[in-house]
Amino acid sequence: MTHPDDADDRERRLLELLGQLFGDRADEVLAQMRAQGLDPSALMGDGPLPDSAAMRQVLAQVQRLLSTPGDGPVNTSVAHDLARQVAIAEGDPSLTAGQAKAATDALRVAELWLDAATTLPPSGGQAHAWSRSEWVEATLPAWSRLVAPVAASMADALATVLGDQLPEDVDLGVQLPGLAGGEELGLEQLGLGGLEPGQVMRRLGAAAFGMQVGQAAGTLSREVFGATDVGLPLLPDPGTALVPTNVAAFAEGLDAPADEVRLFLAVREAAHARLFTHVPWVRAHLTGLVEQYARGITIDLDTLEEQVRDVDPADPDQLRRALSGGGVFGVQPTPEQKATLLRLETALALVEGWVDEVSAQAALPHLPHAVPLREMLRRRRAAGGPAEQTFASLVGLELRPRRSRDAAALFAHVYTAGGAEGRDAVWDHPDLLPGPLDLDDPAGYLARRAAQAMADSELDQALADLLGDD
Length: 470
Known about the structure:
Helices cover 63% and strands 3% of the residues.
């Protein structure tokens, strides 16, 4: 019969092992083992492991952290698994039929109201009601693509910094104390034989960045109302979505009835979807600017080295926590980045301003609390929510539409002058897009646009006359 003290000692050793593999999630993993019928103390005996399947499970987890298909800059498998875990950490109950119907009905009603407020037709895609986990599944590929440029730069920097910290004869194995005799498992046992140390460091960087993306996406899933809250197109195909759990949580404590809140958020979601679907260059314009800015980011190697100095190179979770501390991105953006950032902030403000103005026009005749709800959403976006914090930590970039009120004022002015058709015609071509000067003086936008059109016409006529003389 095993003495209780011996069992306690073996369990303590197992916790130490799990701590090396899973960081601060060791207690959670131990609880999961018990829930699956495994005896934790039996795994740490002095002799051979009584359950070889448990050993293989541990090795598979380590191998997964250190591997990523195609050596990409983001380990998407790690990102996916962590995002799902974070999404359900505070509860993610399956939607009832009533919740799903209320959400999709609200999105359909929103389309009817928008038909009277804008010339852009419905997106034509499916109306979705998602749990938090389903939101993660639908949007995670877009997050991985958006952060890929800076993740690649970070992986190279980590390979340089961590490589410099390792001795030349280092064995990048994983030590499993007290397990299988305390032997060290090298790259061959982990399925990584043949890789150079630099490649292993990049794999570690990809795992660490995958954890960051997963943590960020999972956190966002508990805050967002639909698929367009961040102002970027995250879905590959047309469609609208609401996350009823988050919508209900937001509505709690508000003076407005829950159904009004749901409808107002549905109108905003559907307006975004119309814009991203029927003005296709907007999608490419926004994502292109984000990627262009991210590619120009420089990594502060001194700061990075300071943050990872005491990190175990074989522990991706320690790397994730170190990278989440911030400060590793170059402090001074280049002139090109400053110009890109200005264009991006302007574009985000214009999208938010158009959606704000159109949504208000569509909702005001139907929702008694449309005005206070509009103001609440304006302040929420201006103050900077989870989306801004997410991008600041991932790519050193905030997605805050700082001038969305100015943009809304501009679209209101254009609507007064030319109706919905004139307001929506602003999106006809990228060259017509208002700039920072127009946000400074919305009332003068149409006059400047008319003057530019006249100048262009005169230039075209001069060129035609010149070519005709030849």
